[in-house]
C-alpha cells in the first residue's frame, strides 16, 4: 500500500484534479447558476497560473508531500495512531474527518486574524466565483496550509492512504463548491447534509461581511452548524448576490501581479 501511494501520488492527484475540473467546467457551460460579471478569459488564465505556481512552489520548498510525511511518521513511529490498536480503515476515516476540521479552523482563523486575512483575501478578490476560484490562493497561504497539514499528520500518525484520500477530496470539493453550476434546490438541501454545495459556499463569497464570515467548510458541512457559522442563503438571493470584497472592485485585481500584491495593499476589506 505504501509503495503504491508514494510512487503514484502525483498521478492519482493529477487524474482526479483534471477529471473533476473537466466535469465542473462542462457543467458550468451547460447549466450555469449565474451570469458572470467579469471576462472569463482573464480570470481563468490568472487563476490557473497561480494554481500551477503554488504547486511548483510547494514541491520546491517541501522535500516530501503530506503523504510522504505520513509514510515517514509510520516509519519513525510518530503520532497517536501509530500507538493505537485500531484498524487502518477506521483510523483513516477519523484522520480524514480530523483533517477536515483542521481546515475549517484554519479557514476561520484566516478570516479573523488580520495578518492571515491579508493573505486569504486574495481568494476573495475574485469578482465572480466558478471552478477556477477553488484554486485561487496566495502562495504564502498555501505554504502555511501545507505546514499546518503536515504538523497534524505527524501528531495524528495518519495512514498515508487517508492523507492521499483527503488531499484528493479537498481539491475535488474545492472545485465543486466554488463552481457556477445550477442545482435543484431540493437536491441541494439533501446534499448539504453530507457535503458543502456550491449554493452553500457561494454565500461565503458575498461582499456583505456577515456573509463572508460564514460557511467556512470545504468538505463537510457539519462544522459550520456545530460552531454557529452556518448561513443558509444570501440575503439578496443567489441571482443578485455581489461576489468579492467592497474595496477590491477594480479588474486589475484579477491579474497575476495584482493578485500577488493583495496582502500588501493598504486596503482591508
Automatic annotation (TrEMBL):
<dbReference type="GO" id="GO:0012505">
    <property type="term" value="C:endomembrane system"/>
</dbReference>
<keyword id="KW-0472">Membrane</keyword>
<feature type="domain" description="Fatty acid hydroxylase">
    <location>
        <begin position="93"/>
        <end position="229"/>
    </location>
</feature>
<dbReference type="Pfam" id="PF04116">
    <property type="entry name" value="FA_hydroxylase"/>
</dbReference>
<feature type="transmembrane region" description="Helical">
    <location>
        <begin position="12"/>
        <end position="32"/>
    </location>
</feature>
<feature type="transmembrane region" description="Helical">
    <location>
        <begin position="89"/>
        <end position="110"/>
    </location>
</feature>
<keyword id="KW-1133">Transmembrane helix</keyword>
<dbReference type="GO" id="GO:0050479">
    <property type="term" value="F:glyceryl-ether monooxygenase activity"/>
</dbReference>
<dbReference type="GO" id="GO:0008610">
    <property type="term" value="P:lipid biosynthetic process"/>
</dbReference>
<dbReference type="InterPro" id="IPR006694">
    <property type="entry name" value="Fatty_acid_hydroxylase"/>
</dbReference>
<dbReference type="GO" id="GO:0016020">
    <property type="term" value="C:membrane"/>
</dbReference>
<keyword id="KW-0560">Oxidoreductase</keyword>
<feature type="transmembrane region" description="Helical">
    <location>
        <begin position="44"/>
        <end position="69"/>
    </location>
</feature>
<keyword id="KW-0443">Lipid metabolism</keyword>
<dbReference type="GO" id="GO:0005506">
    <property type="term" value="F:iron ion binding"/>
</dbReference>
<dbReference type="GO" id="GO:0006643">
    <property type="term" value="P:membrane lipid metabolic process"/>
</dbReference>
<protein>
    <submittedName>
        <fullName>Fatty acid hydroxylase</fullName>
    </submittedName>
</protein>
<keyword id="KW-0812">Transmembrane</keyword>
<dbReference type="InterPro" id="IPR051689">
    <property type="entry name" value="Sterol_desaturase/TMEM195"/>
</dbReference>
Amino acid at each position: 500500500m505504501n509503495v503504491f501511494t508514494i510512487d503514484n501520488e502525483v498521478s492519482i492527484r493529477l487524474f482526479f484534479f483534471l477529471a473533476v475540473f473537466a466535469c465542473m467546467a462542462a457543467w458550468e457551460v451547460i447549466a450555469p447558476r449565474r451570469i458572470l460579471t467579469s471576462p472569463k478569459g482573464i480570470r481563468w488564465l490568472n487563476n490557473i497560473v497561480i494554481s500551477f505556481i503554488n504547486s511548483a512552489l510547494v514541491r520546491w520548498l517541501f522535500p516530501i508531500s503530506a503523504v510522504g510525511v505520513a509514510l515517514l511518521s509510520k516509519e519513525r513511529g510518530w503520532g497517536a495512531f501509530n500507538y493505537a490498536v485500531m484498524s487502518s480503515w477506521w483510523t483513516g476515516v477519523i484522520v480524514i474527518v480530523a483533517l477536515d476540521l483542521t481546515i475549517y479552523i484554519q479557514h476561520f482563523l484566516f478570516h479573523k486574524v488580520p495578518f492571515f486575512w491579508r493573505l486569504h483575501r486574495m481568494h476573495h478578490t475574485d469578482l465572480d466565483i466558478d471552478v477556477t476560484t477553488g484554486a485561487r490562493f496566495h502562495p504564502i497561504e498555501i505554504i502555511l496550509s501545507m505546514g499546518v497539514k503536515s504538523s497534524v499528520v505527524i501528531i495524528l500518525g495518519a495512514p498515508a492512504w487517508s492523507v492521499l484520500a483527503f488531499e484528493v477530496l479537498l481539491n475535488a470539493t474545492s472545485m465543486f463548491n466554488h463552481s457556477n453550476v445550477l442545482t435543484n434546490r431540493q437536491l441541494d438541501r439533501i446534499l448539504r447534509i453530507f457535503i458543502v454545495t456550491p449554493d452553500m459556499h457561494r454565500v461565503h463569497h458575498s461582499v456583505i461581511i456577515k456573509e463572508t464570515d460564514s460557511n467556512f467548510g470545504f468538505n463537510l458541512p457539519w462544522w459550520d452548524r456545530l460552531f454557529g457559522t452556518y448561513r443558509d442563503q444570501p440575503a439578496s438571493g443567489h441571482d443578485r448576490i455581489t461576489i468579492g470584497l467592497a474595496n477590491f472592485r477594480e479588474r486589475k485585481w484579477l491579474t497575476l501581479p495584482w493578485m500577488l500584491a493583495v496582502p500588501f495593499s493598504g486596503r482591508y476589506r
